[in-house]
Amino acid sequence: MPLLVMKFGGTSVATLDRIRRAAKRVGVEVAKGYDVIVIVSAMAGETNKLVGLVNETSPLFDAREYDSIVSSGENVTAGLMALTLQEMDVPARSWQGWQVPLRTTDTHAAARITEIPTDNINAKFAEGMQVAVVAGFQGIGPDGRVTTLGRGGSDTTAVAFAAAFGAERCDIYTDVDGVYTTDPRICDKARKLDKIAFEEMLELASLGAKVLQTRSVELAMRYNVKLRVLSSFEEQSDEAGTLVCDEEEIMELNVVSGVAYSRDEAKMTLISVADRPGIAAAIFGPLADAGVNVDMIVQNIAEEGRTDMTFSCPTDQVKRAEKAMMDAKSTGAINFNDIVADEGVAKISVVGIGMRSHAGVAAKMFKVLSDEGVNIKVITTSEIKISVLIDRKYMELAVQALHDAFELEKSA
Ligand code: ADP
Ligand code: ASP
Ligand code: MG
Fold this sequence. Notes:
- The chain folds into 2 domains: 3-175, Acetylglutamate kinase-like (Carbamate kinase); 259-405, VC0802-like (2-Layer Sandwich), CATH 3.30.2130.10.
- It contains 12 helices and 18 strands.
- The protein has helices at 16-31, 46-57, 63-70, 72-87, 119-126, 154-165, 198-206, 214-223, 279-289, 318-330, 361-371, 395-405; strands at 3-8, 35-40, 92-95, 103-104, 113-115, 131-135, 138-140, 146-148, 169-174, 195-197, 227-231, 242-245, 258-274, 297-299, 306-314, 338-351, 378-382, 385-391.
- The strands form 4 sheets. The protein has an 8-stranded mixed β-sheet with strand order 3-6-2-1-9-11-12-10, with helices on both faces.
- Strand 17 (378-382) and strand 18 (385-391) form a beta hairpin.
């Protein structure tokens, strides 16, 4: 039997009525002769609620307990989806991650998938089951404990299942009808893309466009999974949505194809650290050990052997970062006068494969922001992207101004 993976995000399973609508879509594919693996997220808002409970109970929580709590939302929707399908006379059953078992590394709260055995689920397909409903976002670590794959991780569960089972396609059903030039919720001129190259999608995702989790794009690229993003609210058609594909499949490449933003960034500065060989390792080693995801780094010019070191990280890791730095200071590993956290910043990035062969994108980006009176705090670049850190209050304005300046509402 040909096989499809269909993933439904939080808003697509937010109510019993929406679960029924999603199940009907699954039923359509089953009627066409497909076996289907359905990956579900928790109902919209559920995971945030669970994360809130964890933080309230224990701000510097034990990540193993965090995982056992926040993974529970998906268990509910997996069971409800299986029951809904059974009510429609479609033979279905649910699996939690550990039952598959979807094996992961032991990096709790940010685990990576290491293995998905197919025998267990395939045996049920052979017995006549037509839909396997799998709880997304969760797995089991080497220590036998439940793990989660990081926020948005159900996308990665879906692509990994598509790769493991050799699915014909992996369809990601969400609350927008595809991948846009920027988040359609903050820029009404955003344009839906029919196709986007893996590499561009990878950058957009890692820079904040949460429509796909970064790891899911990486996996799709590595295992050549046919990946489509589409709406679970609109009419079904074979051409719907956005196809994430190889660069070669796209006729015209834009210099800039998208603008991404990440709202929850913080800028931290260590004031007056000794400028000596090994200082960066002495700072960023303990931060990594504490599980802080450092993104941008700037070391200022030293004066009299002392310098300021600035880095950015997600806002919810500021406390961890501060603790790691104070601990390192107390052991004498580093010395600084003060640590200052600016939690009111956002990161804006422009992305495009065409940048490889076009100069001037950075200059244009900086000019657009300066014309809007937006001050740039930190800059980083790579081959196909430019990112800046700015005050969060200018985030929407900056995204819209850049979208206009690079004429993204027009197709190439
Ligand atoms: P789900 O719950 O289905 O996984 P998410 O909220 O994780 O959905 O992702 C979908 C959201 O991603 C959209 O509602 C949209 O606001 C946001 N988004 C950000 N950037 C983009 C983009 N470039 N294209 C489409 N959606 C985007
Ligand atoms: N429910 C999880 C989250 O909200 C995983 C997912 O939806 O992909 O992050
Ligand atoms: Mg998501």
